[in-house]
Amino acid sequence: MERVEAALPIQSWTASSGALVLFVESHDLAMLDVSVELPAGSARDTPQTSGLASLTQRLLRLGADRMDEDEIARRLADVGANLNTTFDVDRAGYALRTLSSDAEQQQALMVLSRVLQAPSFPEKVLAREKTGVIAGLKEADTKPDIIASRTFARLLFRDHPYALRAMGEPDTVAALTRSDVVGFYRSHYCPDRAVVAIMGDVTRQRAGEIADQLTRDLPAASGPLPPLPPVPPLAASIERDIEHPSAQSHVLTGQPGVARNDPDYFPLLVGNHILGGGGMTSRLYEQVRERRGLSYSVYSTFVPYQQPGPFQIGLQTRRDQAQEAVAVVRKVLADFIANGPTVAELQAAQQNLVGGFALRIDSNQKILNYLAVIGFYRLPLDYLDTFTARIEAVTLEQIRDSFRRRIDPERLATVVVGASGAK
Amino acid sequence: MTSWMLRTLVALALCPLSLLAHGKVEERVLANGMKILVKEDRRAPVVASMVWYRAGSMDEENGTTGVAHVLEHMMFKGTRDMPPGEFSRLIARAGGRDNAFTSKDATVYHQQLHKSQLSLALRLEADRMANLILSAEDFAREIRVVMEERRLRTDDQPKALVYEGFAATSYEAHPYRWPVVGWMNDLENMRVDDARDWYQKWYAPNNATLVVVGDVTPDEVFAEAEKYFGAIPARLLPVRKPQLEPPQRGVRRITIKAPAELPYLMMGWHAPGLRDVDKDWMPYALEMLAAVLDGSDAARLDRELVRGSRLALQAGSSYDGVNRGPGMFIMDGTPAPGKTVEELEQALRQQLRRIVEQGVSDEELSRVKAQVTAYEVFQLDSMFSQARQIGMLENAGLPYDSLELQARKLKQITSVQVQEVARSVLTDDNLTVSVLDPQPLGERKPGPAAPPEHRH
What we know:
The structure holds two protein chains of two kinds.
Chain A: E1 2-3, E2 11-14, E3 20-25, E4 31-38, H1 52-60, E5 63-64, E6 67-68, H2 69-78, E7 82-87, E8 92-99, H3 102-117, H4 123-140, H5 144-157, H6 170-174, H7 178-188, E9 195-200, H8 204-215, E10 238-242, E11 248-256, H9 265-277, H10 283-290, E12 298-302, E13 310-318, H11 322-339, H12 343-355, H13 357-360, H14 364-376, H15 383-392, H16 396-406, E14 413-417
Parallel strand pairs in A: 3-9, 10-14
Antiparallel strand pairs in A: 1-2, 2-3, 4-8, 4-9, 5-6, 7-8, 11-13, 11-14, 12-13
Chain B: H1 4-8, H2 16-21, E1 22-29, E2 35-41, E3 46-53, H3 67-74, H4 86-93, E4 97-102, E5 107-114, H5 118-131, H6 136-155, H7 158-170, H8 184-188, H9 192-202, E6 208-214, H10 218-229, E7 252-259, E8 264-271, H11 282-294, H12 300-308, E9 312-320, E10 327-335, H13 341-358, H14 362-378, H15 383-395, H16 403-411, H17 415-425, E11 431-439
Parallel strand pairs in B: 2-6, 7-11
Antiparallel strand pairs in B: 1-2, 3-5, 3-6, 4-5, 8-10, 8-11, 9-10
Helix pairs in contact in B: 3-6, 3-9, 5-10, 11-16, 11-17, 13-17, 14-16
């Protein structure tokens, strides 16, 4: 057991099941937040099984032990507990919020424990959920922002599993069987890969019991988790214009970015804050929205995953302004990479990120989210304690250097949906 | 859960431990009429600060709809002492986050910062309350941003178009009928003087409430508020015409065509809003009804229409009763493939009929009560939410410290009351139905419908 005394006292240990546990004890509010996550996100799908990871996660709460989905829902609602999904390319699981009073806590945790460890995957429910997912996918495929993000992901990641859609494709989901789901569950929801985050009104001893209760009956892994393949850089610039009757063009431009554990993480974080991540004070906001009124929303972001996730710049603008907007974005990006930020910009960004640190951990919910991320990506336990110091240590040269090495303005994928003159 | 009540609940402590962290709301009114509301929350060294102007889209006029929201955008531009954008830059440099939102009832400006920076936020808010410049050049650029926002959030969003059409049909006279973002033609024809007029009319301290929640002492906040806002003179506010909606005399139905795959149905009934937190019972009964229908996955609509009969991919219900204007009870849903909006409408009507005839079970009432109890605690996890809840009640003319009372009232609602409110309020004469008729993404041709397959 480790104990870290700092801004946030995070306790961490390995449960006897092999699960990694992170815990912050706080009795300010009579509530408890618990999350359990596995490396069972959509990156564990293949092009043929796209949607399997998501469907498996979704079905867990729709039948467990002798409880059908209705009983699971009732037992949670009867104690006022909330059970929410977490799912992305890397991670899959559930987050539970419950009152910490004995009866409520026990019932809520019992449900979560059974949902995670004794799912029944009823056939009829599977059929219904598949229908719903497929209808949702077809609906999504009519929306310009979804078309843009799907096209962008495929251009960036090609054969890499990060190109796959989280919920799958209509034809791949239609082909999924109960046997597929059971197989996926057994091979991915294994205790030695689980990360349990606990935040709130329980003692360390009770937290230990909870972590054991939630993971000791998970299926044993039959082999090691295959590593994710690396993400290759783009070979050249690519552009896609896609027709859509929308009033706005939706624009995404970018390339593969960084992984969560990347040594350039902090210089890129601070640099991106200046470029387009810092909201109303960023360069992209100033040039695209403030000066030219081209877009309501414009941003840049690195999305760090286990392997490099996207670096992307996004905006939406009236169709006849799309070309102008793309040109402005390219210029802002190229200028930023060539010259880096100014001293004043760096100071302002650092002041915002350092001065605003308390806002990152001012609620149980936010703290739980950090515990889950720190656990899943095996970030150092003092990640939050050293956060502000690492921000302050970033230099102009580090930003210039890291952006030059990581972002190549000559090899960007650009997607415009709702492009005038597109085929 | 879309219930306004469960969103807004903040109770006094349920558990002694909470008393250590949270205080009551303390009030002060400045000489110029500005009300200051402060609640201590010491769980983190941060503060959420909001200025609520009681001026929203319901105070606008035909021809200049959207001006309240436009002014919200303009408030981030220059003042007499500060260039455009400086507000956000200063807050950012202080480690803060800032934004704003406009609703039918109010325009709200908010910051979240380290507690040591509250003075900065107050100083800047006072400055833009009194000294906003509103230049023609800034306006000319920003109105284009607002038009992009309308395109992004409404014009290209079929469900938003359904809601917009619904509101414009359900309300014939009341200004709730037009969208907060405004009609596009009004935005295209708006002038900087419209924004200036709005600012002059409504941005006065006697039309504003400051709400602060966080690691602060009320007396200190009162002193700061006096220091920065105290010298701003009160102004006579324009007369607000009630524009009451005349009683609806029959069901109304509209269809919205937009590019989409799935149809969608929205049904809304005019309903009483919460006016007297103690004496009213119908708003609480409507809240309970919405919760029995859609308060959780165990509630009736999910259980029976989505999972049971598989008639719907999604079905929901909500009641909106904490407003300056009238209340509304809503049911909506997306039919499952192979089902129609007509079948869904009949199923939703059947749900209401059953409740009118048979009431709701003790088990269902208990379940809602359990959720209310849990929310009373969960809501304390966010200072921003608490501030928003206090501001919303105050803006609607309800006591800001009445949430515990409201929770108790809700928990006392009986099945008979739920039956009665459904029977008397949710009638066809009060009802507007808005339906999305999905169109293929290719060009729409008049005449025979295109085949149902969709092209990418």
